[in-house]
Amino acid sequence: MKFFTLFAVFLFSTWAHSQQFKLGKLSQEEISLTEVSYEPGSDAVKLAEFGDLKITNTGYELMEYGRTKILTTSGLDYAQRKWSFRPEKKFDKVVLKEAQTINVVDGKTVITPVEKKDIIVSQNNGLTEIAVAFPNVKVGSVIEYKVLIMRPHDLFATPWRFQNNIPTLSSKLNLTLATDFEYRVILNGAELTKKYSGKKNNREWELSNIPSDKIFKNVYNKEDYREKLSFQFTAERNFHGTFYAENTWDGFKKLIAEEIAKSLKGANYQDIANDIKTGTTKFETLKNTIIYLRKNFTWNRYWAVTTKNLQSEFLRTKKGNAADFNILLNEVLKKKGIYSEMAVNSLRSNGQIILNFPTYSKMQTFVNIVESDGGEKIMVDAATSDPENLMFPNLNYFNNIVLGLNGAGENFLSVTPKISEFVSVQKLKINETNNELTIEDRAKGYFVSEDVKRENFYVFSGAKNETPQNYTEKDWNMQKQFVNFENTSTYYLVESPLTKTMRELEVSKNRNFPIALNFPFLITVELKTKLPATYQLQSENFNRKITSFNGNLQYIQNIERVGEEDFFTWSLLVNKVYFNTNEIAEYMEFIDLVNASLEKAAVIKKIK
After folding, report:
1. Is domain 249-415 in CATH 3.20.20.140, yes or no?
2. Is pLDDT above 70 for 3?
3. Cα–Cα dist 47/15, whole Å
4. Domain 420-606 belongs to what topology?
């Protein structure tokens, strides 16, 4: 299996560097700038960022300088900055050194310093927040600051992001390693990797004309592709021989196997399995097992890949983390004769597993990949999966890959949600004074959600809908509604109801990072109508069928005459959700062909 990665790795010992960033002095280019050429319409722009980063034995220190220009009235929201820290931690601190607003009035520079009244310090749950509202800000103002940030995160941290929520013209970071220990520096992002990959002795990084993170459309987590620098220590400190220090997948999996083996000692799992009813199918047995675990044990709200002895802790207290739940599930399924592979997962909200080496921050939780009836694989988290909806777990769990714990080496498994379906059958009756529209929808999987706007799939919009009838039929969520609207037109344009869906699937032409769609789906919309003798259907080259990726992407639109009725059908199948960079060209070709087909509309026209 091939995967796309966007980072480079370097090892350093020690180094020192310093550079001055001159506050209060704007260049003529900065003064004249009113729009970002490569991202027009931006409300604000970071003119420059500079950081002096020092990694120490206790964590890191970052002297950060920033300068932002306000371009629109909406951009006034960017005239404030916030930092936070935990005062009870010895090496966690934020010190605002300087902050001011710069305006150019009649060619002269006017500087308004931030005063005490512009700073709000608040405390909540042990966290101290410093909020700065820059004074005298208007369109064209420049705000700038100098701040010292100290953090105790010496195991893994991401102290510098070159890419922000607004475009950045220049971002530079210098590194000093003032520590007795060895660290791995991780560069993340397409441009950063392209520019500095292979430069092992590099000690400073700089990018220019960086777009905002708004470019990250159709991804599971922007942080997976953001241009940024992280670091993780390698093998020293008090964590030698632990998950924090392990550098190979074989070594990491060995540590997990040893911990799981220790956790299983002393308990009789056959007795637990005997307490759970064996179903007529593997799936029913799995469901019964999940129900049993959730009824008899409480999740402590922690995801984890570490555990203690189950007999002395989890089975005794009836409370534990996600690792405890999933280890017990795996062992019980073995006793039931059901194959299940334990795997390490990082949720979408946490960011994707880094493939080149173990990064402990991405080793978030255990899941089970269970082999159900007919060999179907189901991903289950024993701590959180809904036993009544095991086929469609929370999408947060599907982050493209998991690390399988069976076998040796880099056993990465691709994980994809089960396909969801939506079918809408719409029947149009045209009368002399009014039109009648009957809509019957069927939804399954992730389409059964309040977030899904069913009206996006309706051929005719703007009608007054009666209260819909909702009911269930087997695995389907059903909805039926009747619509009446005045017949005030002699001309009806019949366009594809999948236009909005296709717009959501579009990506930029210069995209250089993978495409990740939310879930696989099949949408089918049918429009049936029996036209009065006074109306006529006109269409030209309407019928289309477009396929790509061996049929995993498919679009169909078709008109068929059956008896006296006209049947319109639109269908979109997306059965592949993750596309590496070498697949983007084929993906975009499919999107372009479908969009061209969407322009082939039909017309219902009154002729008498």
Report:
1. no
2. no
3. 28
4. Jelly Rolls (2.60.120)
